[in-house]
Design a protein that fits this description.
Helices cover 13% and strands 47% of the residues. With 137 residues, it is mainly beta. The strands form 2 sheets. The protein has a 6-stranded mixed sheet. A hairpin with a 6-residue loop joins strand 9 and strand 10. The chain is globular, with a radius of gyration of 14 Å. It starts with a strand and ends with a helix. The relative contact order is 0.22.
Length: 137
């Protein structure tokens, strides 16, 4: 299992331990783990977990926050600081866990509660490889 945490910058703390959402990849699932604060701010009781087979594309972006589209419902958005929760737009729903203008991923899904996961995260070659596999199909 791979596990990384995206660290907040400029000495400010996000969540209980100064970290943002944690991505976990195992053989069958991608999970966006959230701290207690993150669950509270996102208005969720548990993390988001999707089967690897539901991932249709993975894109590394320089600013995950700039990829957000639609209206927050439910969740928390603090301009320039963080976005946590569900964003809805015409015919689509995204789960968002971003901080500042940190780099991260846009992960497109099929057959799940969310159409996309938008997450601030350091580079994860294994996650990027999943996107490469899907693109070659």
């Amino acid at each position: 299992m791979i596990s990384l945490r995206s660290q907040a910058t400029n000495g400010r703390l996000i969540g209980e331990d100064g970290a943002m959402a944690e991505l976990h990849i195992d053989d069958h699932h991608l999970t966006v783990k959230l701290s207690g604060f993150e669950k509270f701010a996102a208005l969720r009781r548990k993390e988001v977990s999707v089967p690897i087979s539901s991932i249709t594309s993975v894109e590394r972006v320089t600013s995950a926050r700039q990829q957000i589209r639609g209206l927050r419902a439910p969740g928390t958005g603090i301009p320039g600081l963080l976005a946590l929760g569900t964003w809805r737009r015409s015919g689509a729903t995204d789960f968002v866990a971003t901080t500042r203008s940190d780099g991260g991923y846009v992960i497109e899904l099929k057959g799940q509660d969310f159409d996309r996961l938008i997450v601030s995260s350091p580079s994860m070659p294994r996650l990027e490889a999943l996107g490469d596999k899907e693109a070659s199909k």
